[in-house]
Amino acid sequence: MVFCLTGFLGANAQEWANFRGMQRIVSPEVKGNTVTFRLNAPNATAVSVSGSWKTAERSVAMTKDTSGVWSASISGLVPELYNYTFSVDGVGLTDPSNPQNSIRDGSRFMSIFIISGPTADLYASVLDVPHGNLEKVWYKSPTLNLTRRMYVYTPAGYEEGTTKYPVFYLLHGMGGDEDAWSSMGRAVQILDNMIAAGKAKPMIVVMTNGNANQAAATIDYAAAQTQGAMGGTTTGLFEKSIIDDVIPFIDKNYRTLTDPQNRAIAGLSMGGAQTSYAALNNIDKFAWVGSFSGAFVMWPNARGTSGQGSQGINMEAVEKTVFPSLNSSANSKLKLLYIAIGSDDSLIESNRQFTDWLKTKNINHTYIDTPGYAHEWSYWRVCLVDFAGKLFK
Amino acid sequence: MVFCLTGFLGANAQEWANFRGMQRIVSPEVKGNTVTFRLNAPNATAVSVSGSWKTAERSVAMTKDTSGVWSASISGLVPELYNYTFSVDGVGLTDPSNPQNSIRDGSRFMSIFIISGPTADLYASVLDVPHGNLEKVWYKSPTLNLTRRMYVYTPAGYEEGTTKYPVFYLLHGMGGDEDAWSSMGRAVQILDNMIAAGKAKPMIVVMTNGNANQAAATIDYAAAQTQGAMGGTTTGLFEKSIIDDVIPFIDKNYRTLTDPQNRAIAGLSMGGAQTSYAALNNIDKFAWVGSFSGAFVMWPNARGTSGQGSQGINMEAVEKTVFPSLNSSANSKLKLLYIAIGSDDSLIESNRQFTDWLKTKNINHTYIDTPGYAHEWSYWRVCLVDFAGKLFK
Question: Which helix (H) or strand (E) holds A331?
Fold first, then answer.
């Protein structure tokens, strides 16, 4: 560009500055298993970086060079998608030099980077694979008396063809909303990359808002927050809306396979509890059911007065309240009942109790207890990859 | 909720903290025409807030109370959507207490708030109106040799009906991408609110990526940046891709009215130059054409060697290069050729030159020179409201 644009750039002056090399800070810089962070803060007194790594302290002090740029490196990182934020004199912020500056996780924003490796590479935004579309879709929920929003992923090729697709309903955790699985959850990248590699069947993925009194994510609809961003429940009402409102809408407006063999549901934490509630009470609807770090403590009466341990649940009360009629006849309908939890998750006791109860009911299931993971996004992405790879086969 | 969730919240602990009242900072707080900002930063030395207001200094120092919370108020704000960021000891950040914390503008992120008023209210995310859907759509561009992404807005009711809709192609400016009009541009809110109020016809809005060598926005596809986030051009190639690739894709995959009376195109800054280039060379395609603060200086040969003024353009060279065959026969095809620019925009001279040239060619057009606006989002939103309200009538 030979002409002079100075003076009219207005809102995009920073982009221009970056382009012109006026700001040359590279952050994060990933080389092998080492990441280096940099932040220009000549007037700051103390700068640190905090992130989701486990091989170093969560918060690492940064040091200032003579030009006022603070930096820190972390080595020995295992392949993973990491999130991080800076702290400048005690105030948190995302990384202004990172194009993936502000990835939303509920009410917070974080920057991200990836250390390459077999599973972590599935989280990357790869240009050179076919891409599915992601739509923010409004629908009526008579059950919840709200017009609500969900995100719908349609796989690459959906628009060009006439094929009908299986559908995977994917639920978020407490503090999240319909935006969660496609931001920190990387669901779009994971599905694009897995489908392109033949590791998952092409499928539609429906990401609902599991906060029963919330119409849409607060980032777009701040007013929705007045209804309570923490409106997540497992009272059965949201679960009913999945069956009565969401599935009919999806089957009407998308080219779907509508038999239960082609319908899956899974969720993380609160969404795992909602998933089990919805699916195991509607055993003719879903053949594929997954709970990732299920917050079964949220089931009605799970944390009653009968003296269960601090992390445990009262399965007798849960059975009466939530699963009064579940029995081994479910086995003929379920292709997969998948209960996964990290070994370091404080919810593990309640997950064991639930799967022990499933055993007493002779209900077939897969229980996965994964060492090295707590209650965290890194695990839910691993679960999504594992579960999605098993579906509809 | 009577059960104890402590210990498993993991990634959403902050949300929980907010809910429990452990962090009670309200920011921004809007009362009438006054906004108050607050930031908890007990260890910071200097905190300020900078924003897009014009009735106060752009950067306002904040003061610390005894609890370590910094605050500042700005009064007398005219109705508008304002963007702002904090500076903590010289480092910029968004407002962690604002649900609309990180609204993307190219490579930067900003927090926003609205001072209520007739036009500003059209920018608000209103729950209580019918909502259109927004889809991130991938399409093949043989012209640009890329598989690329665009955003497509379909109006409320699109899914339920069989109606065909007019289509409005809406282009961003330099430093922006396909994400721009739906983030800082508030196109979704504007269309939802205008359509609900009967101020605009229901229409499909297609928001393309005008950086000819970029597949998708860098926030999702950071790798795309290696091809040059500043790849915006007005060489005619991107413009050709609109005609040859984008329009056929949209007409094939959406229920569109395909006659030129039902097709509009407009853009801001670079997008205004691209719009004029594309539309006035394809006069049988678009009956409605708009340029908002058009960066006509970007046209090929506009800033040649022939000694035009510092902000002016060489219309003789532009005519030969860009518009060799445009003449008054266009008047029978064009319903509206809309050229709008703020009086304080340094591009105003080139906009006057272009419209003077249109006069010499006897091409009907509407020229709007709006006092009080420079090269800024507040003006482009005003233009969108004004232009969208005239379309397809």
Answer: none
Token pair of B22 as six digits: 């452990």
**Which is it for strands B167-171 and B263-268: parallel, antiparallel or unpaired?**
parallel
Q: Is A155 on the interface with B (CB under 8 A)?
A: no
Q: Do B99 and A159 touch (CB under 8 A)?
A: no
Contact A174 B15 (CB under 8 A): yes
Amino acid at B288: W
Which of left, alpha, beta for B376 (phi over 0: left; psi -120 to 50: alpha)? beta
Residue B203 tokens, joined: 């229409």
Q: Which domains does chain B have, with CATH numbers?
A: 2-116 (2.60.40.10), 133-388 (3.40.50.1820)
Q: Tell me the pLDDT of chain A (393 aa) as tens digits.
A: 223 343 344 334 444 444 434 457 999 999 999 999 999 999 999 999 999 999 889 999 999 999 999 999 999 999 999 999 999 999 999 999 998 888 888 878 999 999 999 999 999 999 899 999 999 999 999 999 999 999 999 999 999 889 999 999 999 999 899 999 999 999 999 999 999 999 999 999 999 999 988 899 988 887 554 444 445 577 899 999 999 999 999 999 999 999 999 999 999 999 999 999 999 999 999 999 999 999 999 999 998 655 455 679 999 999 999 999 999 999 999 999 999 999 999 999 999 999 999 999 999 999 999 999 999 999 999 999 999 999 999
Q: What angle do CA A94, A99, A102 make, to 5 degrees?
A: 35
- Record: contact B230-A16, CB cut-off 8 A: yes
Nearest CB partner across the interface for A19, out of B44, B149, B230: B230
Chain-chain contact of A133 with B133 (C-beta, under 8 angstroms) = no
Does A376 lie at the interface with B, CB-CB under 8 angstroms? Answer: yes
What distance in Å separates residue B159's CA from the closest CA in chain A? 7
Angstrom distance (rounded) from CA B255 to CA A339: 43
Which two structure tokens, joined as six digits, stand for A102? 């502000």
Set of chain B residues whose Cβ sits within 8 Å of the Cβ of A12: 105-106, 173-176
Residues of chain A contacting B106 with CB distance shorter than 8 Å = 11-12, 14-15
Burial class (CB in 10 A: 0-12, 13-18, 19+), B22: exposed
pTM of the entire structure?
A: 0.92
Tell me, yes or no, if B19 comes closer than 8 A to chain A by beta carbon: yes
* Per-residue pLDDT tens digits for A81-108: 999 999 999 999 999 999 888 888 887 8
Which residue in A has a C-alpha nearest to residue B9's C-alpha?
Answer: A375
Contact flag B15-A220 (C-beta cutoff 8 Å) = no
For A131, the closest of B126, B133, B138 (CB atoms) is B138
Beta-bridge mates of residue B47: B88
Interface ipTM: 0.90
Estimate the crossing angle of helix B377-390 against helix B187-196, to 10 degrees.
40
Average pLDDT over residues B379-388: 98
